[in-house]
Amino acid sequence: MVGPALPCPAALGPTGMVRSGHRVGDRAKSDGFKLRNAARRPTIVAGDDRAAVDEQKTRSLMHRTTRTARRTRLALLSLLLPALLVPATASAHDDDHDDVPAVVERAGLIQGVAVDSSGRGIDDLAVQALDARTGEPVASALTYASARPDGVQHGYFYLHVDPGTYDVVLVKRGYDAGLLAGVTARRKAPTSLGPITLELRDWPTTTAASVVDPVVAPKQRVRLKVEVGSRKARVDGGRVKVLEGREVLANQRLKRSDKGAVKVDLGRLPKGTHHLKVLFTGKEGLKPSRAEKVKVVVARSARHAR
Fold first, then answer.
1. Which residues contact 198 (CB under 8 A, 6 or more apart)?
2. Which is higher by pLDDT, 89 or 59?
3. Contact yes or no for 155/123 (Cβ under 8 A)
4. Of 213, 263, 217, 272, whose CA–CA distance to 242 is shortest?
5. What whole-number distance in Å separates Cα of residue 31 and Cα of residue 259?
6. Which residue has the higher pLDDT, 153 or 34?
7. In which region does residue 96 sit, left (phi positive, over 0), alpha (psi from -120 to 50) or beta (all else)?
8. Between 20 and 30 A from 303 (CA), which of 78, 98, 112, 277?
9. In the chain, which ranges are continuous DSSP H helix?
10. What are phi and psi of 87, to 5 degrees?
């Protein structure tokens, strides 16, 4: 292959590069440089014939590689396209279930609603389907949960399983576990379990109380710190009572945001020593409990309180 005309050695500078410009100057001629128009400048300078050949080979190889890759992609697409169109074709020819995907048609559906004793849906309850023969878990879900207090969707769940017989287990902390044995799932027809009632357990609680200031001045208010806890359930309600003998000094409600810890203000108490009883009255799912008696002294004067 014959390359482009190469400049004579006199046209090369000290670095072997061709100089280009607009006019030929005397100084440039005296330095041995010949200025050329940029449009007529060759791509490869003198002494790089091998580079020109190698560049042409590289371009040819890249062109062949690109054509091969394009053919490979077209071949793969022609193989995969029929497989992708099979489910759509099968669904299109099904006269009874045109809108149901083929994968869903082969599965069974178990659905139901978990409620408490008052009929309210139980949110975030774990539901699991076990194979009736082997006991192996097959599918699991959580019941629907929402910040909105109303709505029939609360407590709803569904499980996609293969047609067969299953044992359905429902579990949530604070509730008795539920078990429905021998639930049959059928193809194309959902199995509805209806409302499933779970009883709330009465879990034991513990109550602890302490006085913020054990000795107070006559006009100083008496305050208590009360903590109610349970190892099995969350304390999100109920009431705390403070009594001296049979007299009720405080009856304060526990809010969900309190997380079982609350400060009780008893106001001003008469001078003297007071022995106080602190009780947690309990609520649905939580048993009542009481703390040890606490003692507070109301001094005769502010000087004695110090």
1. 114, 115, 116, 122, 125, 170, 172, 175, 176, 177, 178
2. 59
3. yes
4. 263
5. 93
6. 153
7. alpha
8. 277
9. 26-30, 49-92, 102-105, 302-305
10. -60, -40
Per-residue pLDDT of 19-57, as tens digits, reads 444 444 444 444 443 444 444 444 444 444 554 545 555
Query: pLDDT: is 51 or 166 the higher one?
Result: 166
Q: DSSP class of residue 18?
A: B
pLDDT of residue 189: 86
- State the pLDDT at residue 205: 94
Q: Is this model's pTM higher than 0.70 or not?
A: no
- Mind giving me the DSSP string for 245-272? TTEEEEEEEPPGGGTTEEEEEEE---SE
Enter the DSSP assignment of 286: B
- Give tens-digit pLDDT for 198-253: 988 888 999 999 999 999 988 899 999 999 999 878 898 999 999 999 999 999 99
pLDDT score of 117 more than 70: yes
**Residue whose token pair is 């090369």:** 12
Question: What 3-state DSSP class applies to 95?
Answer: coil
The full set of domains in the chain, from first to last, is: 106-197 (2.60.40.10), 206-305 (2.60.40.10)
Question: At a CB cut-off of 8 Å and minimum separation 6, what does 214 contact?
Answer: 295, 296, 297
CA–CA separation, 226 vs 228, rounded Å? 7
Q: What stretches of the chain adopt beta strand conformation (E)? A: 108-115, 126-131, 137-142, 156-161, 164-171, 178-185, 191-197, 206-211, 215-216, 222-229, 239-244, 247-253, 261-267, 272-280, 289-290, 294-298
Residue 106, C-beta contacts closer than 8 angstroms, at least 6 positions apart: 162, 187
Least confident range of 18-22, 126-130, 181-185, 302-306: 18-22
Report the alpha-carbon distance of residue 128 to residue 140 in Å, rounded: 4
Q: In what order do the strands lie in the sheet with 178-185?
A: 137-142, 126-131, 164-171, 178-185
